[in-house]
Amino acid sequence: xxxxxxxxxxxxxxxxxxxxxxxxxxxxxxxxxxxxxxxxxxxxxxxxxxxxxxxxxxxxxxxxxxxxxxxxxxxxxxxxxxxxxxxxxxxxxxxxxxxxxxxxxxxxxxxxxxxxxxxxxxxxxxxxxxxxxxxxxxxxxxxxxxxxxxxxxxxxxxxxxxxxxxxxxxxxxxxxxxxxxxxxxxxx
Length: 188
Known about the structure:
By secondary structure, the protein is mostly beta strands. The protein has one domain: Sandwich (Immunoglobulin-like). About 0% of the residues lie in helices and about 30% in strands. The strands form two sheets. Strands 2, 3, 7, 8, 9 and 11 form a six-stranded antiparallel sheet that branches. It has a five-stranded mixed sheet with strand order 1-10-6-5-4, with no helix packed on it. It is elongated and about 40 Å long.
């Protein structure tokens, strides 16, 4: 089992302000919401875990397949971290797999550094939580470049989709809560 690299800036305040995009489409949930076929692989499996607003209790375990990635996570109070595994359940490579956890206190953990996963590959996930108290959480795995808009913008060039995490491409007119252009989390 390989360890999933969770390097990044750590917990990021997620107030929801500034989620509106300056481009043609976008916003945190875009026109199609979280399940708007990021990378074309999500369809009905997306289920809108994040968009549903149904927070998990701290003692609950999350186990869902989304875009071919099975994410199993739980909160470990002794280490104040979210731990688990992500598995490629498909017969093809999943590109740019990354994990996020949204906390009830408005903090977003992740996304983790995007990785490509071979068929059947399993990686461990460990996302340290914030010291600020929280009572619920909503995790999700994301797969692909999300060029269709969605929550995390895109990495293409000339695309005018926006998203919560902006974009990293040239000539992109997208906005996003976490900015656009420049360096993205995880050194991407």
